Amino acid sequence: MDGQPIDVRSGGGVVELLGNDFASVLYLRGEPARLHAYDCRGSVAQLAARSTWGTVRPDELDALRDWLADPGLRVDRRSGAVSGLRVGPLEPFTRLLARGRYVVTATAPAWTETAVVDPGEQGVASWYWPAQGDAIVPTGPWPPPDQATVAAYRRQIAKGIRPAAVAIGPAGREVRYLLDGHHKLAAYQAERVRPLIIELARHEPAPLPRDLFAGLLPEHVRERFRHTFDDWRHGGPPPDGRNEP
Prior knowledge:
By secondary structure, this protein is an alpha+beta fold.
């Protein structure tokens, strides 16, 4: 896997991710916040759901506010290649993670290929991978409500400044959960500019039992995931890491 590996040996567990690229759940401060899984209906559709309703951004990310506003990374406008990433400034964030090995990358995908999948008031949303690009699931309100902040970021982006958003995903990286930078991402999309996203992904899956996943889903969306439960081994090792029948 490309990127810079980091080992979190004494993480605070404020941010924890279970599962793999087939099914995953994001915990924030010990509470389940967002979930994702393939829908297993014979297509490439995937589903995202919300388990809690409040804004769940960790306040500790405020320590990165100034650096993320202009991290000094270089983005090739044609290819989207990003250079200059340093993991040191991310320490205030990485010490929030559950223990384990992670891989850090910086990406700048085409703005048209950054599919924001918001479970919204219905509590569930779907998208098609890879037809719609790599999805990013917001953990706060979308679209972000503070349009003045979006406008301020738009002015910076128009001047050539590239503020960074922060996302985390399971091993495999077919989905990312947006932890910080909702206003920035909205500004990039409004300006039709490649968004700069610093991504962390678990190097190896953390076990996610099927029954735990099912129990975290709000009852009114559980039927949408029925085929996921029935085909928990779809396409490779199951999210719980158990390979026996």
